Amino acid sequence: MSANAELLRLMEPQLRLGLPVLDEKSRRLVLGMVARAAGDGGTGAVARLTGASWQTVADGAAELESGQYAPQGRVRRPGGGRKKLAETDPGLVPALLALVTDSTRGDPESPLMWTTKSVKHLSDALAGQGHRCSPQTAWRLLHEQGFSTQANAKVMEGKQHLDRDAQFQYIAAQAKQHLAAGQPVISVDAKKKEQVGELAQAGAEWRPRGDPVRARDHSFPDREGGHAIPYGVYDVGANTGFVNVGTDHNTAALAAESVRRWWNMTGKGAYPAAGRLLVTCDAGGSNGWTNRAWKAGLAELAQETGLEITVCHFPPGTQCRCLSAANYPFAGLQPWVHDARYASVDRVI
Prior knowledge:
There is one protein chain. The protein has helices spanning 5-18, 24-38, 42-50, 54-66, 85-88, 92-101, 119-128, 135-144, 164-180, 252-270, 292-305, and strands at residues 104-105, 113-115, 147-148, 185-190, 194-195, 227-235, 240-246, 276-281, 308-313, 320-323, 345-348. With 349 residues, it is α/β, with parallel strands linked by helices. Strand 6 (227-235) and strand 7 form a beta hairpin. Helix 1 (5-18) packs antiparallel against helix 2, helix 1 crosses helix 3 and helix 2 (24-38) crosses helix 4 (54-66). It starts with a helix and ends with a strand.
């Protein structure tokens, strides 16, 4: 006995109209209901008529016959649906953990771990070992095992002096004293070198629509254009910035000359009664605490201006030096420049 063809013909337009608006549970039961009404062969006929899976139609009919429906709020009975890969493949999770063990970082006692390998590479490696695992599944399994993706945390510090906090407090006290007395306080630092020329720069800026700044398609070094070395001077009291641009090397001569130009072009006009100058900076590079040329350059500036120049270097290795014509050891000597081709400075921004 075959399925009731007339019933199926009448139900076809109704099924095509109603099935798309039903949830999974309702569709399964409706398909089973029509299959039972169609008689023998109804399950296969309904599946061919609607394009549904034969198993879905059969499951719906079986639920109707047994009366064991999915509970309220669920579309399937507990345990229904496809098993997770971790259940069907018991070796999947151990294989995944073995792959990330050598790249796991962080405290092993911490409940939160992270890995540097991408889920795409992990899924490819698992597939090579015979484990079916998509990148999405690898991502889910890693999260279930307590992993997450994180950027590097810059929290590991080098050797620190026992009086590190006291050094910061001393520098802060020096700055407060100078500012309270109306004396200038500046912070100096060299910035990243930049190539000079029509070169593309990161970021975006506001311009008329369709009128971008034109730049070269490749940023190859231009020997004729050279590069610029910005050296910044920040006036703490006035909250203003001053940038001196060198075109050769980031040397102590550039650092000292930048302070000199700030004073001649801005500082002495803003602080006409100044007798002291406090300079704060880091402890290395062109203005490092062991750089003799930097000290000699400031001693020369102190002689020229009559200022008592105090330099405070921030930790690590904080040192403070009072550089004036009266008490600086090199005050009466010719400043020592370690590079005869010290940085030339051609413009001020």
